[in-house]
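Journal club side-thread
Mid-discussion, someone asked how the predicted structure for our own chain would compare to the paper's figures. Pasting it here so we can look after the session.
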Amino acid sequence: MEVEEVFARFRDIKHGIKTRKKSTSIHYGEHKSGFKGAGYDIVGVDQWRPGQPLKDIAWTLSLRTFPEKLFRIERMEPKELRTLMCVDLSTSTLFQISQASNKALLMLDLIGNIGLTRANVRDPVGLLGFSDQIELFVKPKLGTSQVFYIAKQIFDKIAIAREYPQKRAAKFSLPLLFMASRLKMRHSVIFLSDVVDLVNDDAAIDFKLLRLVASKHDMMMLILDDPDEFRLRSRLGYIRISDMETGKQTVISARKAGAIRRDIEERREALQSRLKHESGVDSVVLTPENHGEELPRFLISRTAR
């Protein structure tokens, strides 16, 4: 697939975004945040103390007790919610069976859907790409052109990786350490990965570090899956399978492919449960066939809580 085709898909997504009514405010995309300041929503009232901002003093409430006591109103300050898409660019994520349907193309579709939707409500969008190193970092900025720029950066990385293939694993501690040190403001962090390394190795991620970062940001994980990787036309004979990130090869009976697939699904479900209960990170498995229905359902379920 050429970059022009990817951009054409993005334009279709962009034109398909609809709102129920026209916005009467330029701050259509504002969100309530953890920052307290001169906002609109009152959180509480308490006594003013020396050193606190004078602008917070509620003079009307303080008239009867002045000068012995002064009261201040604590408000919730509206802020733009910065979105950072944390993308797994390891070898397994870029692997494809079909050019028309694969995990890399699914990743780009999700970036288009999420990125353009966030840009449409005036939220800055950024990118953090990683494998066994930090591959890309694009600071969150406003505008749909930012989403197209992000897609072009990923597309170029995919093209280079396929022209000059290297075995790269996904080290999830790298982006977590990066975010812990670089992200000072609250972000909406969206991981996009096939979690192959996490399924095969529980030690591939530091759950304590993940819990720390997730406590400061709104974090979710979109798990990319391509069922075609285990679909065989015949159950007869033997096939050679290879670990794309280590190069280790194994010969198995074709009829065992289904059992291997089920084992992977069970381990992935166990990982999802652990992500939720140990770190508070919601996750969903998306495929090229179901992501159009599953992604909105997943996002709605999170806002309903």
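Post-session note: Residues 30-79 form one domain.
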